[in-house]
Amino acid sequence: MGKANIKVVKDNQKAIHPRSRKAKQISKKVSRELKLKKRRGDSNIKLQCLGDKLAWFKENMDQEMDVITPGQVLELIQKYIDRNTEELEQITLKHSIGGRQVRQHASREDCLRITKERETELFTNSGFETVDFLTPDSLKIFKSWTGELRHLPNIKLRKYTKQGLEAMISGASETSEQCNPHQMEEDDLDAEEEDSGDEEMSE
Fold first, then answer.
1. Most buried of the four, 11, 32, 130, 171, by CB within 10 Å?
2. Distance (Å, rounded) from C-alpha 35 to C-alpha 57?
3. Model confidence over 147-189: pLDDT tens digits?
4. Beta bridge partners of 139
């Protein structure tokens, strides 16, 4: 009889005990790779969402303007928040036709409604993040953006609140009134006329 074939098992081919140090090292490495993969995935999703949002602002802003006022920023953000209002109204109209009990497009309706509520909450309280429109250099960079996600880090972002923008608008209006030379001239003329009238009466 021939010799039986004896398989030599090398160290790296041995079964790894689940509680061994090597098993723990492998488990730790796999866990780390999964976490990194998840982070990269989450980061890509966030980047895509930001890209979609900024693309909307680029399409809906006046490309010819080199300076944007707080009032125009307020109008743009509010328009963005209300971008799905028409679709929501159409879904509501479909529900009302024929007295339907079952909500069609319910998931879409809920998604749009929740999104609007969340964005409104941000704009009212902690701040709605978008491009720093009020800084000329940032605006110039944004206008030159071609829509590529890899160039998003070059765009300076800023958080705006509705109250903050309204305060800027109010402050700019007051400053304009105070610095209006025509108004100052009219006030001076009125004062001179009043003084001359008083002198005539005293004579």
1. 130
2. 33
3. 999 999 999 999 999 999 999 999 876 666 565 544 444 455 5
4. none
Contact between residue 42 and residue 115 where contact means Cβ atoms under 8 Å apart: no
Q: What are the backbone angles phi and psi of residue 126, rounded to the nearest 5°?
A: -75, -25
**Whole-number pLDDT of residue 178:** 60
Q: Which residues, 6+ apart, have CB-to-CB distance to 26 below 8 Å? A: 16
CATH top-level class of 26-171? mainly alpha
Predicted TM-score (pTM) of this structure: 0.66
Task: Give the end-to-end CA distance of the chain in Å, rounded to a whole number.
Answer: 149
- To the nearest 10 degrees (0 to 180), the angle between helices 106-124 and 70-81 is 160
**Quick one: tokens of 169?**
């608008």
Please state the domain extents for the chain: 26-171
**Maximum distance among all alpha carbons in the chain?**
149
